[in-house]
Amino acid sequence: MSAVERAHVIVDPRDNVTTVLDQDTGPHRLHGGMELAPGVPFGHKVALRAIARGEPVIKYGVAIGHATCDIAAGEHVHVHNCA
Amino acid sequence: MADLPSHFSGFRRSDGRVGVRNYLVVLSTVALVNRWAELIAAAVPDARIVAGEFMRGLRDPDAARQERACEALATHPNVGACLVLCHDAASARHWREYLASCGRPHAVLALMEQDGMEAAVRAGQHRLARLDEARRAVARQSCPLGTLMLGLECGGSDPTSALVANPAIGLVVDAVIDAGGSAIVSETVEFVGAEDPVRARCGSPPLAERLLAAIAAAEQRMEEDGERYRGVNPTAENIEAGLTTLVEKSMGAVAKTGSHPFIGLLEFGEKPMTPGLYLMDTPFFSPCSITGMVAAGAQLTLFGLGVFNPSGNPLAPTVKVCGNPITAARWRDAIDVDLSEVLTERLGLDQAAQRLRDFLLDTAAGRESSAERWREGQFIVPKTLTPL
Fold this sequence. Notes:
A: mainly beta, 4-stranded antiparallel beta sheet, B: 7-stranded parallel beta sheet, 14 helices
């Protein structure tokens, strides 16, 4: 299946995560670029670049938490890897 | 975002402020004369009534707050002319003194100085007709964008508020402050959880302490009512929706303030002294917090919503901004700026903000907002003590 691009929003240019804006229907590529993990639901975050353990996770231009393990670019970012 | 045009067409007032409207206002200073105000205002179709549950028997600080708010509303920059209604003669004397130097057509009447209800309504309507003529002597002229003061509000919040409406509002706020203007955000309790980002955006450590103390006091009041906010937030439902931390949840609301530093903390209805971004310490109910920001001089309110919320204010156009495609479709006749294409058509946030900015400038120059068309809005001044 060819990858259809998913809508997403980077709220602030300083952010290292983006938020997907559509339901996951199979295609796994962000609009305008990178591949992302399958199954990320509407409203959830994806890493725009690799975030090392302990590094801040930045959304709205501010640290909303820190990576609790290494996060790869395109990976789902949520309570399992950010606190 | 592309640069904003540097001017818009507004009404210059003698106190240096600028109105985006030239409303004919009937102001009821005490709830006893609210009905009188309605009967008088009925004579002029576009007259605005400024009335609330303004009462006697308040104790300070409530009495002083109500009085300050009333006075500030009577002289709001969007007021072109004002008929002030009092119950007793002493109050009318006070108001005549207060308005003597306001620089705009005005009149003050006391109900107790009238002879029966019918004559009282006739007298009021006669004055109002003269004020209506007098206010037409002023015309719009070019005013710098930096004369705008925006009230910032969100209600009916959902995930699209945090991702579309509020961040788009934040970009427009940045542009208005860049141009030398001001913005006020309120509803202190919404800032619980965003203490670190707020501290980082305070111009000075003493200001940061004042803002954080106000946020802590709001959280304390919430806990007194048995609500533990920190620790249970984000809730299981929030987490399912994609919110990972309390900071992230709170930033959804704080995003509408943009990225400029906070330069002050305001009491309810307090006028800012210098341009920039302020937090006003108010309760969270939007008609109440909007009353406070309008009393401070905000000429327009930007209101981000997810599900529909009818809040507005009779003295300051409220621009309703929505990023939820379902809400935007159902409430087409009551939402001003539909930004749901960010979700459905991959419209960029910058382009969304430009659409909002264009609508804001049109509204400032006279385009009617939905809340104005529906005549939405209330005036609510908070009370902290049981009245006598």
